[in-house]
Amino acid sequence: MEEKQHGAATQVGPSMAPKLEVVRGENVGETFKVKLTTRIGREQDNDIIILDPKMSRYHAQISMEAGQWLLTDLGSSNHTYLNGTVVTEPTPLKSGDRISLGETELVLNMPGTAVTEPAPARTAPMPVITPPPSAAVSPPAPGLPRLAWIAGGFILLLFLVAAAILYFIFSRPPAGEETATEAGTPAAIVDSSSGDSQPPAEAPNRPADMALIYEDDFGDSFSGWDDAFDAYTTKQYGNNRYQIEVTTSNLVAWGLANRDVADFEVEVEAKLEDGADSNGYGLLFRFQDRENFYRFDISGDGYYLLSKFVKGEWATLVDWTASPFINKGKSANILKVSAFGPHLTIWANGQQLASVEDDSLSHGNFGFFAGTFSEPLVWVSFDNLKLWTPPTQEITLLPTATRPRGLPPTATLPAATPLPPTATPTPTAETTAEAEATVEAEASLEPTAEPTEEPTAEPTEEPTATPVPLPEYASRDQTLARGEKEVTGRIIFPVFDAARGIYDIYIADAFNGAGKELVQKDASQPALSADGADLAYRSWQPDNRGLFARSLSGGDAWQFNPFFESARPQFSPVDKSLIFHSRVGGKEPAVYRVVNGVGEVMRREGFPIQGESAKWSPDGQRFVYSSCLGGKCGVIRSNIDGANPVILSDHPTDTNPEISPDGSTVVFMSKRSGNWEIYSVGIDGGPISALTSDPANDGLPTWSPDGTKIAFAANRDGEWSIWDMDPDGGNQRRLFAIGGSIDGTVQLDPINSRSWTEENIDWAP
Fold first, then answer.
1. How far apart are alpha carbons 575 and 293 in whole angstroms?
2. In the predicted model, what is the mean pLDDT of residues 520-540?
């Protein structure tokens, strides 16, 4: 008794903690103990982890508060239900309550408490076929002949058969929505332009005696497909289907069967569970690695696409085409690919969509994918996968980088699958491991806005966090969305060589980084003239420091400023005159203009205009720069003679501004939200709009020559790349990786090297 009074006694007997029993969903029969605070969801750090694809990562919580167990929804997308009622606030629980999360239902059991029957769940009633009174059969009365009772039962059976036939007739899908036959043979060949069915046909070169050698209904969550989670992607078994979800824009994720095959037909039932109808999903085939595969897309609004990604470059085989045979919205579609030699044929719901010839890839893995374009969510489920091959076809099991969850160390194919006796498996790039965050302590010198009169503090070094890399099963290399055009022109950019401790300047095609070439060694801060013919840059060569300009095609360079402290040259779009900033006159930078070949400090009312990272307006009559004015710091717009300065933004870290080609909008980068993001403001001021919002660093914005896109540098996914977006920040898409870092401190002169925030990229025709 004494120990109990001091709370030190050991309790003996059955646990009095509540328990949750799963009564519906994939985890049926499992029981979980409830702690004082129990969080439930899909993510791995929950107290109760349930892999229900319709459950949120952090869905609900049960907690003990003031002697009462409470159920709280954690902002789930599909809501939490208690006895059929949506939970909108912390709600008391009692024994026997039924909690519904996604497609999972749990019953709360409290030991030692009488179970109170909960109110019936609000579910849609099941259709019931009730025979008419004339067909009803009552138990035989005493003395009724047994034959009469049998006759009555026979009449009821006939009625039920007739009802089933009528139900089948009236519930069949309309024309164009039929599914493939059990054997996988298409019902008809379709001319997609007309939508008319034609007599049945087979894929070109299809052998007559195809054999079904592999199938999966995903009822067994250990059948070899991997569960994996990432910041933006999830792929997992759930509710007897395989699910892929992507939660950010312009990203694709896939799951593979890990079987190498050459000639085959593969079919799967795919259903868009959630997300925009404009996003894509479908089948990957002849997948050799993440840079070599074919891809068959459909979209929720009834379009299809056939493309290939070979040696890291996209090519369209059949462009986005509307088809009446693709079920729109959240309806299921039976997708099929026939591949025999170079003959590739794609099908939807038993109807042929297109047939092409392409011999780029002759064999490879197969699987399915889901991908986003401008809209940031797609969730697709896959079921009833089947693979047919010719009887003589060899199929090779491919090892994965890590063993899928629950698969034995030595995986084997089904007995019906022939394995070549001397086949050598080819490793695949697919991996199930979750990427782990890494932090790279690179010194990042922040610029501080410089006042017109009072000096500001020196920049301080802060570590730059490297975002988590994408897993091997996800990629930013996406096809173009329907109606989207390839961007044109070239982008020039610096790359820091950590081994040498210095920058180099490169140029590449804006669309995909093709044609990348070295423009200038030991240099950075590149700027192109409006026509793209001339280059200005900052040289870091030990014996040739300063600011230079030359023809982009080559030739002699003109040194227009020899000082180590000078930086960020820019051409006027009108007459190619130059502007830059320099700290040569002291600690604070001032804006200079090259007049008659000589750099002269720009002045306002007789005083030097202090500021940095200046850029011209399209008409060459004004410029924008980063500085302070009237006690406020941010982006400033001024006439070229220094008159009429206007402060456009209001944060000391606002820098690297650039005016749109139509002169209406200024974009800039800033740390006002905690990390570097890109913002916009009107040329005359007004509301400031955030264009990016990502845990990574986004910066150095520059306009496309036609003003329809903004390019910027970002280290998203742990890799420095060039991205672009619409002027309102929408449709953010990675264009290409730069092949190194844009962030570095030149070891030759760390005092005057101010890291990536003083760098520049330009977009020329």
1. 48
2. 97
Residue with tokens 């650039």, as numbered in its chain: 658
Question: Is residue 153 over pLDDT 90?
Answer: no
CB atoms within 10 A of CB 755: 23
Token pair for residue 362? 């002759």
pTM above 0.85, yes or no: no
Distance (Å, whole) CA 662 – CA 639? 17
Q: Nearest CA to 328 among 351, 303, 295?
A: 303
- DSSP H or E segment with residue 483: none
Residue from 54, 23, 22 nearest 41 by CA: 54
- Residues 639, 643: Cα–Cα separation, whole Å: 5
Six-digit token pair at 54?
Answer: 């319709």
**Token pair recorded at residue 238:** 């759930």
DSSP for 643-670 reads -S-EE----TT-EEEEE-TTSSEEEEEE
Q: What pairs with residue 234 in β-bridges?
A: 229, 245
Q: Assign 3-class secondary structure to 244-295.
A: EEECCCCCEEEEECCEEECCEEEEEEEEEEEECCCCEEEEEEEEEECCEEEE
How does strand 598-601 pair with strand 603-604? unpaired
Whether the per-residue pLDDT at 11 is higher than 50: the answer is: no
What is each CA distance from 43 to 40, 182, 227, 245, in whole angstroms? 9, 37, 12, 13
Q: Which of 98, 60, 106 is nearest to 79 (CA)?
A: 60
> Could you read off the pLDDT of 310-368 as tens digits, one per residue?
999 999 999 999 999 999 999 999 999 999 999 999 999 999 999 999 999 999 999 99
The three-point CA angle 698-703-709 to 5° equals 85
Q: Minimal CA–CA distance to 332: which of 267, 422, 388? A: 267
Can you tell me the distance from the alpha carbon of 298 to that of 334, in angstroms, rounded to the nearest whole number? 11
Closest C-alpha among 600, 591, 521, 584 to residue 557: 521
pLDDT value at position 368?
Answer: 96
Q: How long a stretch of residues is the chain?
A: 765
- For residue 610, the 8-state DSSP code is B
What is the predicted pLDDT for the residue at 156?
54
Q: Is the dihedral of CA 728, 732, 733, 734 positive or negative?
A: positive
Strand partners, 229: 234
Q: Which residues pair with 41 in a beta bridge?
A: 49
Reading the block at residue 598, the tokens are: 């000589």
Report how far apart, in Å, the C-alpha atoms of 511 and of each of 477, 490, 718 are.
11, 8, 21
**pLDDT by residue (tens digit) across 406-423?**
333 333 333 333 333 333
Residue 591 has pLDDT above 50, yes or no: yes
Residue 622 scores a pLDDT above 50: yes
214 Cα distance to chain centroid: 30
Cβ–Cβ < 8 Å for 604, 645: yes
35/30 Cα distance (integer angstroms) = 16
Per-residue confidence (pLDDT) for residue 155, from 0 to 100: 53
Of the candidates 356, 360, 351, 386, the one whose C-alpha atom is nearest the C-alpha of residue 204 is 356
Characterize 548-575 residue by residue with b for buried, 16 or more Cβ atoms within 10 angstroms of its Cβ, and e for exposed. Answer: bbbebeeeebeebbebbbbbbbbbbbee
Q: What is the pLDDT of residue 109?
A: 93
Report the run of H or E that residue 257 belongs to, with start and end.
none
pLDDT digits 0-9 by tens, 160-172: 545 554 444 444 4
Identify the pLDDT of residue 259: 93
Amino acid at 109: N
Q: Which residues contact 685 (CB under 8 A, 6 or more apart)?
A: 646, 647, 648
CA dihedral angle for residue 419, residue 425, residue 427, residue 428, rounded to 10 degrees = -20
Check: CB of residue 635 under 8 Å from CB of residue 654. yes
